[in-house]
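User: Just a sanity check before I run the rest of the batch. Below are the structure tokens for the first item. I only need the designed sequence back.
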């Protein structure tokens, strides 16, 4: 439909029963149930076969009921959200260019602003001593080979156990939990090697608290600024898989710790938060070999995807990667890794026109600063916690349990013999 007459006019666009059902995400018989309850009006179709429905009225019911119109690609759930907009190879937090926020403000400042709409210069998160001690004891009981996401998951559980008021879903209580949970997650991670505890202990900036958990090398101002910017850039990215899981949990009125646990469970997937690990290993190999060409060639020869390239939401370079690359220019020790990353992009471009994504930019940071391959995943998980909380706050205000897709049964029809 190209013309959109006003609702209620005789020439207003009409939908068939099937079209109305698809728009509402229900079965055709449910559409007639809406009519019988007075939630929809219908007009008998020409010829007396079936009914038609006012398109604007159906859309309004879809918004009220939590159902969403299918996306142009078809089949995807679409949610109203006021957090992140991605369009034309840029992305915005509440209408503000996220890359500009990363250049101007700290992670804590942006998280607070995203949650409350208020910018608090110098905002800091502090872990309650009892909560931090419980999280550290729990993390310390894990096997030595445990990964950072393993540690973060159990730290969340420990933090939840120390908060008897965790089931209070008022915005004030949720934000109080978030402000203590995020530094608890960081503080529960072990310090790398003999790296000194960050200046300010658990009360400095979150980037400064996180640094010694990622590398034994001392932090310098330019590198710390890149880490802080990375934390800001990764706070949210619309309804990524882990964020959808977090919203499903929030829809069931799970407490904020459970919401974060749901997000962490999905984040660990190799196609999501753990995607920076392969990019790190590839980039490290390119630096060690002195050229990215043979490394890319090896990937292509064996049919492996070159990590750190391409993104389904951007036609060009991921704006998060572009921002980090620009900041990494000011980090002297990143020169070699940065050159290798650009050579990866240029070499792969001969085979496929792919651009750098955030995983490649995180790999430059981790390789340049002597971090482990999973460092990018750690940064991702800590950062995205603030985004999951923002989405939970939105979801708590929606109709509970609205995220309930219907399964399309494909098994044998009953009755079947009892096995």
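Assistant: Here's the designed sequence for the first item:
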């Amino acid at each position: 439909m190209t013309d959109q007459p006003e609702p209620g006019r005789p020439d207003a666009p009409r939908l068939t029963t099937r079209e109305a059902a698809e728009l509402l995400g229900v079965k055709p018989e449910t559409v007639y149930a809406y009519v019988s309850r007075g939630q929809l009006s219908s007009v008998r179709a020409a010829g007396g076969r079936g009914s038609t429905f006012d398109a604007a009225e159906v859309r309004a019911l879809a918004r009220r009921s939590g159902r969403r119109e299918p996306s142009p690609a078809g089949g995807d759930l679409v949610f109203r959200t006021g957090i992140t907009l991605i369009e034309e190879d840029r992305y915005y937090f509440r209408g503000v260019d996220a890359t500009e926020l990363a250049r101007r403000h700290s992670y804590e400042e942006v998280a607070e602003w995203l949650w409350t709409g208020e910018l608090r210069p110098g905002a800091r998160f502090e872990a309650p001593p009892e909560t931090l001690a419980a999280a550290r004891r729990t993390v310390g009981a894990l096997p030595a080979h445990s990964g950072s996401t393993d540690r973060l998951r159990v730290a969340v559980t420990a933090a939840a156990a120390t908060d008897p008021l965790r089931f209070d879903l008022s915005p004030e209580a949720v934000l109080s939990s978030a402000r203590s949970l995020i530094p608890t997650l960081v503080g529960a991670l072990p310090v790398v090697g003999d790296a000194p505890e960050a200046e300010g202990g658990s009360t400095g900036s979150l980037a400064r608290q996180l640094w010694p958990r990622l590398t034994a090398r001392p932090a310098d101002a330019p590198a710390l600024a890149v880490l802080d910017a990375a934390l800001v850039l990764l706070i949210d990215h619309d309804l990524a898989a882990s964020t959808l899981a977090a919203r499903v949990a929030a829809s069931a009125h799970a407490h904020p710790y459970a919401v974060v646990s749901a997000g962490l469970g999905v984040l660990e997937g190799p196609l999501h938060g753990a995607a920076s690990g392969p990019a790190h290993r590839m980039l490290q190999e390119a630096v060690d070999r002195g050229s990215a060409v043979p490394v890319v060639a090896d990937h292509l020869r064996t049919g492996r995807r070159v990590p750190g390239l391409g993104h389904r939401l951007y036609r060009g370079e991921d704006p998060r990667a572009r921002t980090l690359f620009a900041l990494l220019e000011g980090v002297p020790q990143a020169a070699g890794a940065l050159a290798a990353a650009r050579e990866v992009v240029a070499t792969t471009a001969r085979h496929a026109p792919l651009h750098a994504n955030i995983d490649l930019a995180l790999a430059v940071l981790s390789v340049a600063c002597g971090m482990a391959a999973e460092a990018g995943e750690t940064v991702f998980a800590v950062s995205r916690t603030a985004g999951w909380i923002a989405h939970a706050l939105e979801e708590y205000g929606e109709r509970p349990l609205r995220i309930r897709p219907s399964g399309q049964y494909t098994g044998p029809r009953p009755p079947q013999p009892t096995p």
